[in-house]
Structure formats: C-alpha cells, structure tokens
Amino acid sequence: MINSVLVVDDSKMSRKLVIKSLPPEWDIPIYQAANGIEALSIFHEKKPDVIFLDLTMPELDGFGVLGELQKEGARVPVIVISADVQTQAYERAITLGAKAFIQKPMSGDEIKKVVQELHLL
C-alpha cells in the first residue's frame, strides 16, 4: 500500500505534471524536491513509499540520488522520468536500482501503466 510519494525534478512544471498524472485513488501526501540533496533529506525524514525521479538536476543529479539510496540499502521503488533517453542513461539508472524508466514528455497513461506493472496500486 502506498502511503506517500516523493516527486523530484528541478522543474516545478514537470513536478506538477507528474503529480497530476498520479493515480486518483492515491489520496496521500505528495512531497516535492527540486534537487537530489532536497530529495535525500525528504526521503530520510518522510520515508515515502515510491519516488518519481528526474536525472538531470543541479546540486545532486538523479544518478547521485540512486547511488546514495543503493549505498544505504533503501528498498523504495524509484521510477525515473527523464528526457535523457540514451541507452547508457537507462542502463545506469536500472543498474543503480531504478525499477522503471519513463521518457519525457510523459503521459498519465505511462505513469499508470508503470504503477500497475510494479503492483503499486
């Protein structure tokens, strides 16, 4: 059961689009972070059940967040949402523990499909 979500992207508009696309039955707290440092701080404080993570951000990018979570042994599912669709970016994100990779611009249907595939509903 999902009790809270963390959406991480340096673009406020992108965060809003992700939040708008989340399953309507998730009437839960949704935390937001504009960079990886904020994301890790919120993760440690709030313990969200799933993270939607951009890769390209200032201060600490998504790869850095994934690396830290992996180092800590965190078991939170991370869904990467990124415009960086190079094969090496995808492979690196998955190797660092991402459970799924959605290409920007994304749609609500894509988020719904991934959430269902990961049994997060």
Description:
There is one protein chain. The protein is of the alpha/beta class and 121 residues long. It has a single domain (5-117), classed as 3-Layer(aba) Sandwich (Rossmann fold), CATH 3.40.50.2300. Helix content is 42%, strand content 17%. It has helices at 12-21, 36-46, 62-72, 87-95, 108-117, and strands at 5-8, 30-33, 50-53, 78-82, 100-103. Strands 2-1-3-4-5 form a five-stranded parallel beta sheet, sandwiched between helices. Helix 1 packs across helix 5 (108-117) and helix 2 runs parallel beside helix 3. The chain starts with a strand and ends with a helix.
Compact overview of the structure:
The chain is α/β, with parallel strands linked by helices and 121 residues long. The chain has 5 helices and 5 strands. The chain is 42% helix and 17% strand.
Write the layout of secondary structure elements.
Blueprint: E1 5-8, H1 12-21, E2 30-33, H2 36-46, E3 50-53, H3 62-72, E4 78-82, H4 87-95, E5 100-103, H5 108-117
Parallel strand pairs: 1-2, 1-3, 3-4, 4-5
